[in-house]
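Dear colleagues,

As part of the handover before I leave the project, I'm documenting each prediction I ran so the next person doesn't have to rerun anything. This entry is a single chain, and its sequence is reproduced below.
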Amino acid sequence: MTDTDFGFRPVDPRADAALLHSWITHPKAAFWMMQDARPADIERVYTEMAADEHQEALLGLRGERPVFLMEKYDPAHRELVGLYEARPGDVGMHFLTPATDTPEHGFTRAVLTAVMARLFQDPAVRRVVVEPDVRNTAVHALNAAVGFVAEREISKPEKQALLSFCTREQFTRAVAR
């Protein structure tokens, strides 16, 4: 499996709310901190995101089937405002692979590689910024595998986060290994 096995399409808040609800409220997605969300809450969140020029939500597809969620945001305007000095070319990112009864070896790393490749398709993107929960050691390892370097812990209203960055060059070197 490679990162080119995936396509992308924008989230349709109304049509995709039930699917996203099943993913985001699953115990595996505890770090999304939406365990108690109702389908209407999910639809509202993604409707607001779709209307916001500084955010975008995409479903990752294998064929026509949605298999992961990707969120892209401008850290100078969302999520990290005032928590670090954003640079031109910075883009923030979240991704979620849903829980499954049939795990596929290498799937999550292929997803993250596809997400990063998608972000770096935009020549204006110089650096990807992430802020996962400091306790999410699995995602820290995945992030490091695709070139992210942890800078420092930051305090967000909802969590202690590990601020990490990945330049285009770091990503290219990491995936070439």
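The longest strand covers residues 65-73. Helices lie at 13-24, 39-50, 107-120, 137-145, 168-176.

All the best with the project,
I.
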